[in-house]
Amino acid sequence: MKLSNRAINVQASPIRKLMPFANEAKKKGKKIYHLNIGQPDIETPKEMLDVYKNYEDKVLAYGPSQGLEIYRDNLVRYYGRHKINIGVNDIIVTTAGSEAIIFAMMTTCNDGDEIIVPEPFYTNYNGFATMAGVKLVSLTTYAEEGFKLPASNKIEAKITENTKAIMLCNPGNPTGTVYPAEDMQRIADIAIKHNLFVISDEVYREFIYDGLTHTSILTIPGLEDKAIMVDSISKRYSACGARIGCLISRNKEFMAAALKFAQARLCPPTIDQLAANACIDIEAEYFEGILKEYDKRRNIVFEELKKIEGIICVIPKGAFYIIAKLPIDDAEDFAKWMLEEFSLDNETVMFAPAEGFYATPGLGKNEIRIAYILNENDLGKAMKIFRAGLEKYKNNRT
């Protein structure tokens, strides 16, 4: 019996596909430093965990498909602090940011329609697009150019009669790019000119370095009916397991249609919404402390990478990832080798091969994504192991 083309064609996640090799290494007693996945080690806020500990209702019941009103009311306040002015009915609470992206794709596109997205991009966009029957049209950016957006005429050259949206991740996963206000305005101008939606994935809003500021798509004048924002609490509160996100737009027709998809899956997790709601008024000092910690980690990784001859990378300005182009031919083979054949004092490192973060065949084959989500001591050890492993791998192949 043949499976669906959708199931056959969906891409395996490069973030998780090497886990069987990691599990085998662990069975042999190796310690693995995980730099492959964006799972923060920062403690989840006590305010959130207390909700789970103190929950007293006897039934964990369904909630509204749009999300709990108390949580949506408080999200309006949260976004207002970021100069994003929305109403409670402009928000659909989703099962993490992933569901919000799928809803956005399915609401804006028919089968075979296209969404333009700068690459490298968050690898799971590929899987979401396959699920939604959408074709991703890649707009290639380069490490050598700081992953900057191309000129407007190059972006417009990608637009066809099937194009329905431009999608951005700002700050960027996996590049760490932070798009300045001028770039966001350029994208808005193109969207208005060509009658396109702009889907903006803004889950790393709080993680921006070097004094830069974040420009939300929802703050761009004139784009009110075309702007769609995706957000999540996963990284903000180090709560990846809670699976709470949201889909936001001032376009009433879009929101009414997206709500039908939300109704079909009944509701987002109720207790997790209550836990997220408890974090709305966490003091700014919480985020300032986290940002300082990630800034130190960013600098450790970047300085260590700079010491390795032949590596090309740029210091990330946001999120907690860095893309590095290695002086080898096949990053996935190197990643497997690190897990199967290499260790330093019986320890090794796992990272994500970057080819899966591209849609253009062949690109990213010699690149990796490093998530700097370990404490400074472990991160320093991991980078030492990485350097030693890369040197030995190169020597074995010359």
- Return the domain count: 2
Question: Could you tell me the strand content as a percent range?
Answer: 5-15%
CATH class of the largest domain: Alpha Beta
Distance between the termini: 46 Å
- What percent of the residues sit in helical stretches (DSSP H or I)? 25-40%
Main pleated sheet: 7 strands, mixed
Basic shape? globular
| Low-confidence sequence ranges | none
The order of strands across the largest sheet is 2-8-7-6-5-3-4
Q: Structural class of the secondary structure composition?
A: alpha/beta
CATH topological fold name of the largest domain: Aspartate Aminotransferase, domain 2
Mean pLDDT metric: 96
N-to-C order of helices and strands: HHEHHEHEHEHEHEEEHHHEHEEEH
Q: Please, how many helices?
A: 13
Radius of gyration: 21 Å
Record field, number of beta strands: 12
What does this structure look like?
Strands 2-8-7-6-5-3-4 form a seven-stranded mixed β-sheet, sandwiched between helices. A three-stranded antiparallel β-sheet has the order 9-12-11. Strands 1-10 form a two-stranded parallel sheet. The protein is globular and about 60 Å long. β3, α6 and β4 (135-140) form a beta-alpha-beta unit. 38% of the residues lie in helices and 15% in strands. It folds into two domains: 5-43 and 284-396, Aspartate Aminotransferase, domain 1; 46-277, Aspartate Aminotransferase, domain 2, CATH 3.40.640.10. It has helices at residues 5-9, 19-27, 46-53, 69-81, 96-108, 124-132, 152-156, 181-194, 252-264, 270-277, 284-306, 331-340, 376-396; strands at 31-34, 91-94, 114-119, 135-140, 163-169, 197-201, 227-232, 245-249, 321-325, 347-350, 352-353, 367-371. It contains 13 helices and twelve strands. With 398 residues, the protein is an alpha/beta fold.
